[in-house]
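Cross-check.
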Amino acid sequence: MIPSWLLIGVVGFLVALAGGLLNSRDVRWFARLRRPDWLTFEGLIPLIWTIIYICGAISAYLVWEAQPANRWFLMAFYLLVELTITAYTPVTCKLRSLKAGTIIGGTGFFLGCLL
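Predicted model, tokenized:
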């Protein structure tokens, strides 16, 4: 049987990889956006998201180990949160809409708070 920590990590990794499925046209559009002057940490964003995904996976593992009664519901909720926050970049770039991205990002934030 696959250990729970490994399964959670693999699922989280695969979902995170799916968020990077962009074509060159999407990347060019995103690169042309004007950034505010205070956005000086843009190079650290991949590291920040990696840390966020790792923390989410650790949290899911701890919940899996501590909540045997409703663990499948909670794991589905963790997956929903990760899918929502991962969808931010593809939705923003595919629709060329910061408004749509903000709605998806805000939804992910509130789902994460609810979780």
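The mean pLDDT is 90. The longest helix spans residues 45-66. Passed to J.P. for a second look.
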